[in-house]
């Protein structure tokens, strides 16, 4: 087996594993499969962690994970697929960042790993054992990589930034309410 063939096999294995995990997570959100909570439950969770509206946020994350994962596994539209999955994982990592890096403490390790794998596949391409290769790379042009990753990074930054602002505003309101409560108790 030549190095080129090993590379193609390695990319196939990476696409199938990362794509498969992303599909499983996405279908938990969309359909409640594999012990997930479906759109309603995931929407409530999204709302509780600052992604509003929750139902639409759950739908966007579920579609990015399921669609991006499916396309990655197939090696089809790899730049867009990798970017979509990376964006979803960026949003997930933002939720887990306060818990530190390691997954065992609720950290962002797992989301970052999946996001970086998806980004790496978008950049490296799917290899010859892919639908992109079979179709002549019509959905996998060089210019598509920075376009897809750039657009996704911008949208992810806006969404995560809006979430951060909502959380900061809620914290300020909570502190103001506590101050007013103390003022009423102590008559200051």
Would you spell out the secondary-structure blueprint of this structure?
Layout: H1 3-31, H2 38-48, H3 54-74, H4 78-96, H5 109-124, H6 131-134, H7 144-186
Please, could you describe this protein's structure?
The chain has 188 residues and is mostly helical. It is 76% helix and 0% strand. α1 (3-31) crosses α2 (38-48), α1 (3-31) packs across α5 (109-124) and α4 (78-96) packs parallel to α7. The longest helix has 43 residues, at 144-186.
TL;DR?
37% of the residues are buried.
Task: List low-confidence stretches.
Answer: none
Category from helices, strands and their pairing: mainly alpha
Strand content: under 5%
Order of helices and strands: HHHHHHH
Mean pLDDT: 94
Distance between the termini: 80 Å
SS summary, helix count: 7
Helix content: over 70%
List keywords for this structure.
mainly alpha
């Amino acid at each position: 087996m030549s190095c080129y063939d090993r590379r193609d096999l390695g990319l196939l294995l990476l696409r199938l594993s990362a794509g498969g995990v992303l599909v499983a997570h996405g279908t938990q959100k969309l359909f409640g499969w594999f012990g997930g909570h479906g759109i309603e439950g995931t929407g409530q969770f999204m709302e509780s962690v600052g992604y509003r509206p929750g139902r639409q946020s759950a739908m966007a994350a579920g579609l990015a994970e399921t669609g991006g994962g499916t396309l990655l596994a197939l090696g089809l539209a790899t730049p867009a697929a990798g970017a979509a999955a990376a964006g979803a994982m960026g949003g997930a990592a933002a939720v887990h960042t306060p818990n530190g890096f390691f997954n065992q403490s609720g950290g962002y390790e797992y989301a970052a790993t999946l996001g970086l794998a998806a980004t790496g596949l978008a950049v490296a391409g799917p290899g010859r054992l892919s639908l992109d290769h079979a179709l002549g790379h019509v959905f996998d042009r060089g210019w598509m990589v920075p376009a897809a990753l750039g657009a996704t990074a911008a949208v992810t930054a806006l969404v995560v930034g809006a979430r951060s602002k909502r959380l900061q505003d809620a914290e300020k309101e909570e502190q103001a309410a506590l101050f007013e409560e103390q003022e009423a108790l102590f008559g200051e």
